[in-house]
Design the sequence.
């Protein structure tokens, strides 16, 4: 992932989306997403902060924290005082099927894998396509345990490779298959892993992927995923897990693109006089199942990080709360483009199109957090950056899904706007979006992290930018 090239603004849409596809391919599960992002951050000069150790932060420092190996928060400490926090959050999980503990189901004909649904997906799109199996394995170690990432579909040379496929029933055996089909996840969505001759291969492959004897495997978190590469076609792109890896990729790209100062020059440069904010990037797990986990948006993860950051810099609790009053969050999760075959599902005055720019999402029941204040703050930043935006709302008789913004707000209460990019077939195994929109979102998020807001009165804010690029 060439962040420097993205940050330069010299990459065209084709190059940006090729980087997006490479990022998605490296992120089959939330665990792989966090590991991949941690590698990119380390390469960019960011230091890992273990939650179980004391933190000693320094002005100008760059840091990241992970929790559960599936959520990540990165931030930069300004030189000198700061007004608040400019935070952008996305999620790294996607609807899929989780492999159960006693996975292998063998009979005299086949080997199948016992799975259950994770999140709500379009089931039919998962059928009749090769599927990968990836996640993490907890293994026994001397004096304790550790977890290791595995991908059974990308086994090393000489190791068994395990794939899966969910076969549909032939039309000859189910003449009503195309008539309002419904799927029983305990029957219709069980993946095939091979014939009876391959009994036992799953556990063997798992042990080899984790590089331990079979008896040292304690348990695992494994998921199916679609390994199909992303592709660009005309002014559209299609790929697995665009919801929400597209926003996660843009968030990371914008976060690092806004950090262009050379670290040695920063150490001797004068402290900026203009208002500053702490840029914070959050990637949460478990959004697709409600976020109610220790690593989800409903957890104390973000609050814990902000408290420890403040403590390390000598900021008292009252000072943290004052700075939160001058903070702002973007909740980044893709939205629904108007469907080419079913435009009736969209609100006529709030349709959004592929390639039309960043989507600002509204909902009266606060499934989305956008209101006049937060949307106006974000609009101001987009307009200054020259980024197009569009507005989305569900039809009044069709409740939509929620996202992590309002959930995170129960722990860290700051003005928040829900944004995303327009896409088709959300929660499909293969989704479609606009080719230009990846670049639009990166530009918007780069500009966002280069801004600071200051609360001058209830409902009144000043918005200023600093020279981060």
Sequence:
């Amino acid at each position: 992932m060439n962040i420097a090239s993205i940050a330069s603004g010299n990459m065209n849409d084709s190059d940006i989306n090729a980087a997006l596809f490479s990022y998605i391919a490296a992120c089959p599960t939330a665990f792989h997403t966090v590991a991949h992002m941690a590698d990119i951050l380390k390469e960019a000069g960011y230091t890992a902060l273990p939650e179980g150790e004391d933190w000693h932060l320094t002005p100008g420092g760059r840091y990241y924290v992970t929790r559960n190996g599936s959520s990540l928060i990165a931030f930069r400490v300004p030189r000198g005082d700061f007004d608040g926090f400019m935070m952008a959050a996305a999620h790294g999980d996607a609807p899929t099927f989780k492999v159960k503990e006693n996975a292998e189901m063998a009979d005299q004909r086949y080997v199948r894998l016992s799975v259950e649904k994770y999140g709500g997906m379009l089931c039919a799109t998962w059928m009749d396509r090769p599927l990968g199996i990836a996640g993490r394995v907890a293994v026994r170690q001397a004096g304790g345990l550790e977890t290791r990432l595995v991908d059974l579909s990308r086994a090393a040379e000489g190791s068994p490779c395990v794939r899966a496929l969910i076969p549909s029933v032939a039309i000859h055996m189910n003449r009503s298959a195309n008539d309002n089909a419904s799927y029983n996840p305990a029957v219709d969505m069980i993946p095939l892993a091979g014939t009876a001759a391959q009994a036992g291969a799953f556990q063997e492959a798992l042990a080899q992927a984790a590089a331990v004897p079979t008896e040292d495997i304690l348990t695992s978190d494994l998921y199916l995923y679609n390994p199909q590469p992303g592709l660009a076609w005309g002014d559209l792109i299609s790929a697995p897990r665009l919801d929400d890896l597209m926003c996660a990729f843009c968030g990371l790209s914008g976060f690092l693109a806004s950090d262009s100062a050379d670290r040695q020059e920063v150490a001797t440069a004068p402290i900026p006089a203009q208002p500053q904010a702490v840029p914070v990037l959050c990637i949460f797990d478990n959004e697709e199942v409600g976020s109610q986990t220790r690593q989800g948006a409903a957890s104390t993860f973000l609050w814990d990080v902000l408290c420890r950051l403040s403590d390390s810099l000598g900021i008292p609790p009252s000072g943290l709360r004052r700075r939160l009053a001058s903070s702002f969050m973007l909740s980044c999760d893709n939205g629904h483009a108007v469907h080419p075959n079913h435009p009736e599902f969209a609100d006529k005055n709030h349709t959004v199109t592929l390639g039309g720019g960043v989507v600002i999402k509204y909902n009266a029941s606060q499934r989305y957090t956008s209101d006049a204040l937060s949307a106006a703050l974000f609009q101001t930043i987009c307009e200054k950056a020259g980024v197009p935006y569009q507005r989305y709302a569900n039809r009044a008789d069709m409740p939509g899904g929620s996202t992590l913004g309002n959930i995170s707000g129960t722990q860290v209460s700051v003005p928040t706007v829900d944004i995303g990019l327009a896409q088709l077939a959300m929660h499909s195994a293969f989704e479609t979006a606009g080719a230009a929109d990846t670049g639009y979102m990166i530009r918007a998020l780069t500009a966002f992290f280069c801004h600071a807001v200051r609360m001058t009165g209830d409902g009144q804010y000043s918005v200023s930018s600093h020279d981060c690029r």
Q: What stands out?
A: The radius of gyration is 23 Å. The domain at 3-94+240-465 is CATH 3.40.630.10 (Aminopeptidase). The chain is about 25% helix and 30% strand. The first helix runs from residue 3 to 8.
